[in-house]
# Entry
Amino acid sequence: MALNRISLEKELTDYRKSLEEQRELYRQLVEYANDMIIRTDRRGVINYINSAAERISGYGHDEMIGKRYLDFVHPDHRESQKQKHREQINAGQPTAYYELPLVAKDGGEFWIGQTLTIIQENGEVTGYHSIARDITRQKRLERMLKKRERNFRSLIENSMDLITIIAADSIILYQSPSSERVLGYQSTALIGEAMDSFVHPDDINSYMGVFDPADDEGDSAYKPVEYRIRHADGSWKTIESLGKSINDDEGLTAVILNSRDVTEKKAAEETVHQRNRDLQTINQDLENLYEISRALSKSIELEDILKEVLDAFLCMKRLRLKNKGAILLVNNGRLSVAHSVGLPESYTARYTDVIPANSPWIAAFENDTVIQCCPLDDDTSGQTPDGELERLTNLVIPLTAVHKTVGVICLYSAEAPALGDKDIKMLSAVGNQIGIAISNAQQFEETRTQSLRDPLTGVPNRRAMESELKQRIEEYHRYDRIFSVIMLDIDHFKQYNDTKGHIAGDHLLAKAAELLSGEIRKTDTLYRYGGEEFLVLLIETPSTTAEHVAERLRASVERHTGVTISLGVATADSKYRTGEDLVAAADRALYRAKEGGRNRVEIEP
# Structure
């Protein structure tokens, strides 16, 4: 029993020693941490500070212990800080982040970013634990940047791109709200984090290019760089960034990054590249069809591809073809002539919007194989006046892409060549090449169309607007064709979003676009300029009429949605040399409408 007691005492001694070592380790970690660590009782009286708190504030240990924490908060912020503490307690929020200014011993002001934790025992508040970081440098940079951002803050906050400000050590000083849409992170959660910690390890060198200016001059623009960055869901997004350096009066350097998500673009490019690689592989095995391969590589435009392909086929002497042929494509389950050579209009009329199963080439669709048909014998088939098509053999090549028949090539021969298995396989492979090329061209056309239209509201986007305005301003200066523009935006839209949510905000934008489109002529165009801003292009419309239209738009939106809009009107004039000049004039008028109380129309003189 005595041995057991001795053993137990030894275990207790070892445990106390281990506990003391851990306590000492914890004390050193706290004491020598770079962040300020302050603990108070429930009344806010300081009962512990670490050395970082002394170093950052300038106060000694005895000068802070026993004092109220609020006594060190800048006087202008004490009441608001007390209110925030009360709200945190009432909300049952154990931990909250605050930024506030403290008064240093020398009387100067320094800012901290503080994580305040409420200490509770048995449901009662017994004290507070604060971990704070000196963010004075960040605040100083913020004040400096505010001078530059007054005129474009609205653009930044509502930009579809990512706007990021990083210090020379890669710490994020500012992040636009679009980070949530693009990367899944709240913008405030990124501030203070190291930008390079989100970059894919393989792309670090590429990312560092944001710090390499295009020239040696100060405040210079940087070369655009691409790199992958981690999304909040763990996936990787490809980002293209264009940077510009900034310097403050104290020599602190930062970089403003304008970034956009090019993941889908890169994926689309890779898809096209992969398909092109597949086409190149097939082309190597089809040397005798070089002309067709060359035709496919000439253009991504569908019309060009169809013409070049059919012309190349008709030049193939081995097939002994007549200079007659057609390419028919499937659209919404129907077959129609997309391009033809040497065939009468009645042929196009006969084979427009035809169900493939009802066409003479059903076997090509069902079996996905090259076929040779008997001469066409119905008098509605599009025969030539002398009945020539009735005497010609129809060679049909299916066009396939991703196991799907997208169309057929119909060729005509007076002396039908005997096609062996090798020939059929060769023509099928060519049909596959052409089908892929056509599919790529259709996707390209679809992507080009989508790139000019806003997906949320369905109206043309800013890119389409810029192209149209360029043409209109040139026509005005050349032919004196008058036109006007109306720049408008939804009043208090950010507040609407914050109150009712982004889904409701999206619905409002879509509804506003619908109402605005319904109030203008078919010859006029509504564009989504960006965020909650729209631009209306009114052709052959003088300023007075444009003002009436703007008032009608304002009344309609208010009547049907309950929200208001502000509008600025500008009319083409010799003083506006470019479309951008005219938009800027309308924007100035819109600004006056905002300054004048909103829900009104202003005209730029």
In short: The longest strand covers residues 109-121. Residues 167 and 254 are 4 Å apart (CA to CA). The chain has five domains: 1-27, 32-133, 138-261, 268-449, 462-603.
